[in-house]
Every structure is written in C-alpha cells, then in structure tokens.
Amino acid sequence: MAKTLVQEFTKGLWEEIPPFRLVLGLCPVLAVTKSVANGIGMGVAATFVLLCSNVLVSALRSIIPVKVRVPCFIIIIATFVVVVELVMQAVAYPLFLQLGIFIPLIVVNCVILGRAEAFAFKNRLTYAAADGLGIGLGFTLSLGAVGAIREILGNGTVSIPFSDQVISVFGPSFQPFTFMVEAPGAFVCLGLMLGLMDLVGKKG
Amino acid sequence: MGDYILLAISAILVNNILLIQYLGNCPFLGTSKKMETATGMAMAVVFVLAMAGIVTWILEMVFLKPLGLEYIRTIVFILVIASLVQFVELFLKKSIPALYAGLGIFLPLITTNCAVMGVCLINVKEEYNFLEMLVSSLAYSAGFGLALILFAGLRERINVGRVTARKRTGVALIDRRMRDRVTIGRVPGPLQDVAIALVTAGFMSLAFLGFKGMI
Predict the structure, then answer these.
(1) Would an 8 Å CB–CB cutoff place B71 in contact with chain A?
(2) Nearest one of B109, B74, B75, B104 to B88, comparing CA atoms
(3) Alpha-carbon gap, residue A136 to B188, rounded angstroms
(4) Model pLDDT for residues B83-137, shown as the tens digit of each residue
(5) What is the domain extent for residue B104?
(6) Cβ contact, residue pair B24, A30, below 8 Å
(7) Can you tell me the ipTM of this complex?
C-alpha cells in the first residue's frame, strides 16, 4: 500500500466521506437525523460495528474462503450489531428506543459490508482498523451535520449528544419550519447537501 | 375484515416504506434510472418479502420467543433472509427460467435491502398474527413497488432533460426513444444524478405525507 496509516484514516473524513462521496447507507442518514443527538448516537453505534467488523474480517482474511466470504462478513457484522443492541439497552435506553428498528438494521447497512468487501478483506489489520475508524467518524460527522441542519431549521433547537440537554437557537418566538423534520425534508436536505459537496469538491 | 383493509392502506400509502419510513433507499436510488429495472426490482421485492415475512414470523413464534432467544433475532433473521434469497435464486433458475430471467440480477441485491429485513422486524415488533403479518408483508412490498415505479417514471424524464441540455452544448447523446418524451428542464451540474433524485423523492414524499389524513 502506498498510503500511510494516517492517510487511510483521514480519507474517511473528506475524500471518501459517507454518504456524500460513497453514496451508500442512506437509510439511517434519512431516518435518524431528526436531531443532532440521534444522528451522533447512530453514528457512534455504526462506527463501533464498522471498526470491529473491519478488524475481525482483516484478521480472519486468510481463513475465510473467498467463495463464502459474504455470508461470513454478514455473520461477523450481525454479531457486533447484537453486541451494540445489548449494550445500548443497558447504557442508553432512551436513545435505543428513539432509534428503534434502525439499530438492528445496521446489519444491512451497505457502508459496513462495502468496507469489509472492498478494504478489510484485502488489507492488513492496522490499515483496516484505521479505515474503519476514519469512515465511521466521517459517517458520524455527516449524520451530525444533517441532523443539525434539520433540527435547527425544523425545531429551532440543538440537542447535545449523550445528555438530555437541548439548547434553543432562535428563542421562543421562532416559528419552526416543520417540513425539515418530516420525511420530505430529509430527502430534500440530503439531496441539496450532496449537490453542495459536489460543488465544493470540484473546486477544491 | 375492515381491520385488514385499514392495515393494507396504511402500509401502502400512509406509512409507505420508501418515502415515509425511509427503508430500502439504496435500491430505490440504484434501480430507478430505468423503468425496466424498477419493475424488476419491485417484483423481486414482493416475491422475497412475502416469503421472508412468513419464514421469519414462524421462526420467531416457534423458536425465538418460547426459548427466550429474542436477543439473537438480528443474526437469525439476516441469515434466514440471505439463505432464502440464495434458495429462491437456485429454485427459479432450475424450474422457472422465464421468471429468473426477469428477476435474477435483482435477487442478490435484496439480501442487503433493508426494506425486507425492516418489514420482518416490524411484523414481529407489532406482534401481528399470521394473517395480519401476511397482509402487512404484501402491502408494504406493494407500497415499495408503487413508489419505485412512480419514481422511475419521474426520473426517466429528468434524465432526458439532462441529455437535451448536453445536446444544446454540442454533444449529441440522444436516442430516438427518448427524443419523443417531454423534457422537464436543465439540471444544474452539481445536482445531477443522485442529488436531484433525492430532491425529487422529497417532493414525492411530501405528496405521500398528504395521505396521513386518511386514517
């Protein structure tokens, strides 16, 4: 590999940031970004699964037969998803209820399966870990950003991740732009952000 | 009877799986560029979802729930869906080649389609009985097909708009079938493809949100 460990880590934060550059795993981006806290919570859960599955896939890459690799990846990912589910029920139960069905659905998130197939299965353990952490952090940042835009415009507030605090941005006289926190707002917001990222990326 | 009709309407329109519940968006964007792929995907989802719904529901009721193993539900369901898809693929290839020709390439994609897994989880979480589960699986997949095919119709026109825009700048890239269609307008460069598709989906979702008043 020509790239260094640091480069593998940082590419996930800008060059290949999901879901803007790697257009994968859109469902959680649309569904859980009604608030910053939900978005970040989902991102952290996905990052944990991505990091662990990348490390394990990379560690076992000489043992896993190429022909049945996808079912093996799915079992590895599903195992860590169950770990996340159980840990969240114990530690962050309100968040677990908020995210609901989308926690078990991390198992079918194409970003995670995509990284296992495209990167972890071909690279050394340290690189796979750096890649998983970078892409996961990028995913968390994106979810937080979409969540922030939707929550500020749609509700006039910012919720702090991993606490019950909510900060009001515009004060009590603000008329919320409810469209943004409803389903259509998610699609439009993500579409416009994709366009914006494309514009910035081309110039830079 | 009335309950089942209400359940079906709510699953198809009011809680449309693609546009309101946001499940299965990867194939939604991936296969909606052309009408043919959209119809193929929609049919494959109806087929697999009905079977996956039945199998996962039986597994939950017979094994997971009585044995108190609900916490490994995620692993069991994904394995069942993945192997079911493989099985359906092999079965169709051997016995109904005509159907396989239509659905074949979409079947492997369904394993990672969160709509299938999502509906199986909804069926179990809502504690539906067998008939309710069947209605809900079929209605959610019908809603998936409806939204996907409607969306493909819109998106074909938007892509035509892009082709004519290129023609204006000197690159002729238009085929005869597309020339006869109405063009909608020029899509700005950075918004082309996925970005404009998402914005379009947003406005379709707004239309579906209007069904909220129905029940």
Answers:
(1) yes
(2) B104
(3) 31
(4) 888 888 888 888 888 878 877 677 777 877 888 999 999 999 999 999 999 999 9
(5) 2-153+189-214
(6) no
(7) 0.86
